[in-house]
Amino acid sequence: MIRFENVTKRYRGTTKPALNAVDFEVQRGEFVFLVGASGSGKSSCLQLILRAETPSEGRVVVLGRDLRTLSNRKVPYFRRHIGSVFQDFRLLPNKTVHQNVAFTLQVTGASRGFVQQAVPEVLALVGLDGKEKRLPHELSGGEQQRVAIARALVNRPQVLLADEPTGNLDPGTSIDIMRLLARINAGGTTVVMATHEAGFVDQMQRRVIELRGGEMVRDERHGGYGDRSGLPVLAPEVEKGAAAVAALTAVLEVQREVTSITGPVEPLRGPEGSEQVSAAPVEPESPSVTTAPAAERREPGTNTRSIPVSNPEVDALGLADKLGLAEKNDRDDEVGPTS
Ligand code: ADP
Ligand code: MG
After folding, report:
1. What pLDDT score does 245 carry?
2. DSSP class per residue in 55-111
3. Which residues pair with 39 in a beta bridge?
4. CB of 197 closer than 8 Å to CB of 170
5. What is the model's pLDDT at position 264?
6. Which end of the chain is more exposed for a tag (fewer CB within 10 A), N or C?
7. Looking at ligand 1, which residue's alpha carbon is closest to its atom 21?
């Protein structure tokens, strides 16, 4: 689904490559963390996948398309298959929540009817129903990021790229966003997320690709964050402990939720739309963290946030399903022949 073949990226005016001979392949349905210190090349990887940058050497193949041979004219069509969210949300400040999401569809020439149906659906999916008339400054950071995620998803992309999506959010809100991303992935969307959130990476036990100075130093199927020496330590130990417990509790919930829904739920995307890629079945992740020492230590009455998994979450997944499976229009074909 995403393949880096010996990719080296040198930016103009720099001597040391931002990425050096990076080689990996991401399969359909995977959740991949890109980790590494600031400047290690995480964003560069995402920019290459989006074809916002091109490799100096090597090849990037996304959804069966060699991005080297993708003409500039076709880039906007290609990008409809790739949703992206960033640390700084990047919302249009003078547009409402609805307008921010609708805009993405309108520029692609979607019909009014489709916009009126798809926008409320995707806003419900990210938990923003009732807020469609708000302006970005009338929302919390977490809600703004949800708008950005809704906007990234409204085109029903096969891949969601997230560049430090929780980087501007407090720990509790970050957990909510992580849960949302895990749920989106459980619905079948491939997620590649660059992050510094060691706690989430450790607890999710998903694939981890670690970069150091542009070199890929680790690719682990069920990994943790790894070397934390580059991470800043700001919070006093006590607070960090509480945040860690909250994170662990929530992530365990996510794992339980994901495990329980990946079984019965049909894959979000069927053979349609997979004509360019070899569909690689992804086995459901088993919750590899079954013991929760920190969570068990939690005393009743502490103010640790435990996030219950409720049925509406599963209903929301049904919505995702509907979004992904809704009547296929021919926009998928606009990218044209694949290499
Ligand atoms: P990360 O996201 O892990 O912090 P980046 O991919 O942003 O890393 O950066 C990797 C390296 O490439 C850094 O040394 C950075 O300064 C450099 N770099 C990133 N973007 C550009 C650019 N547009 N022009 C020049 N150098 C860049
Ligand atoms: Mg970055």
Report:
1. 63
2. -SEEEEEETTEEGGG--GGGHHHHHTTEEEEETT----TTS-HHHHHHHHHHTTT--
3. none
4. no
5. 44
6. C
7. 11
Distance CA 81, CA 99 (A): 20
CA distance linking residue 128 with residue 113, whole number of Å = 20
Angle, helices 311-325 vs 112-125, to 10°: value is 150
Best residue among 4, 7, 12, 14 to mutate for probing ligand 1, ranked by most atoms within 8 Å of CB = 14
Mean pLDDT, 10 residues at a time, over the chain (339 residues)? 98 96 97 95 98 97 96 93 96 97 92 96 95 97 97 95 96 93 95 91 92 95 78 58 64 64 44 38 40 42 42 43 39 42
Query: Which ligand is in closest contact with the Cα of 13?
Result: 1
Q: Residue 292 corresponds to which tokens in the numbers above?
A: 């929760």
Residue 34 CA: nearest ligand 1 atom is: 3
Nearest alpha carbon, ligand 1 atom 27: 11
- Residue 254: what pLDDT? 67
pLDDT at 210: 94
Chain-centroid distance of CA 242 in Å reads 26
Q: Domains in the chain and their CATH numbers?
A: 2-88+156-228+319-333 (3.40.50.300), 242-263+281-314 (no CATH)
Site to probe by mutation for ligand 1, drawn from 8, 11, 211 as the one with most ligand atoms within 8 Å of Cβ, is 11
d(CA 244, CA 200): 9
- Predicted TM-score (pTM) of the model is 0.72
| Ligand 1, CB cutoff 6 Å, lining residues | 11, 14, 18, 36, 38-44
The label of the residue with tokens 């943790």 reads 224
